[in-house]
Design goal:
175 residues; alpha+beta; Aminopeptidase; 4 helices; 26% helix
C-alpha cells in the first residue's frame, strides 16, 4: 500500500485515467523503485531510496506518483519530483514506466506539477532533459516548455556524456 496523502488531482488523458498523488518522505522507496526501473537503461545514476529520502526532506521539495485508475490495486506507473523556491521551480525528475508511455501519464504528471506550482505562487518551472531524449523533449514542448540553455556533458550514458537541454515553462493561471 502506498504511503500517500489524499489525491491532489484526477486527470483523464488519452487512453488511461490517472490518479496523481503527492507522496510523503516515507514513500521514497516507491519512487526509488520506479526511478531504477525507468532509467536503468538510460544512464548510470539511478536514485537510491536514501538519496530520494534526502531530496524529499529538503524544504520546497514534493514528489507525486501516478497511479493507473483502471486497476484495483494501487499500481504506480510514473512519478515526478519537483523543488519550489520562490517564483521558480524545478522538475528534478519525471518518469513513466515503459508499458504506460504515450498514453497520457507523463502529460498528466506535468499538468499536475505545473498547476501545483502555480497554486503555491511559482511563476515558472525549469528542467534538464537529455539532448537525445526526443520523446521527452516533445512532451515538454507540448506543455509549453521552451529551450533556454544547455549544460555540456551533463548526463552519463555508459562511457558517453550527453548534453542537457535546459527548458522553462510558465505556470498556468490559478483559477
Amino acid at each position: 500500500m502506498l504511503a500517500c496523502r489524499p489525491v491532489h488531482r484526477l486527470w483523464q488523458d488519452e487512453s488511461v485515467t490517472t490518479r496523481i498523488r503527492p507522496i510523503s518522505v516515507a514513500a521514497a522507496d516507491i519512487v526509488a523503485i520506479l526511478h531504477a526501473d525507468i532509467f536503468s537503461g538510460h544512464h548510470d545514476e539511478c536514485w537510491s531510496r536514501e538519496f530520494l529520502g534526502k531530496i524529499l526532506s529538503t524544504p520546497g521539495t514534493t514528489a507525486f506518483v501516478a497511479l493507473d485508475n483502471e486497476v484495483e490495486e494501487e499500481s504506480p506507473i510514473g512519478f515526478a519530483v519537483i523543488r519550489i523556491s520562490g517564483e521558480e521551480g524545478e522538475v528534478l525528475s519525471l518518469g513513466v514506466t515503459a508499458t504506460m508511455r504515450r498514453r497520457g501519464v507523463g502529460g498528466a504528471l506535468l499538468k499536475n506539477v505545473l498547476r501545483f506550482a502555480a497554486e503555491v505562487g511559482t511563476t515558472s518551472m525549469v528542467l534538464e532533459v537529455a539532448e537525445n531524449n526526443t520523446p521527452a523533449r516533445e512532451l515538454y514542448r507540448q506543455h509549453g516548455f521552451v529551450v533556454v540553455g544547455r549544460r555540456r556533458d551533463y548526463f552519463r550514458h555508459g562511457n558517453a556524456r550527453i548534453d542537457a537541454i535546459i527548458l522553462r515553462a510558465s505556470t498556468p493561471p490559478v483559477t
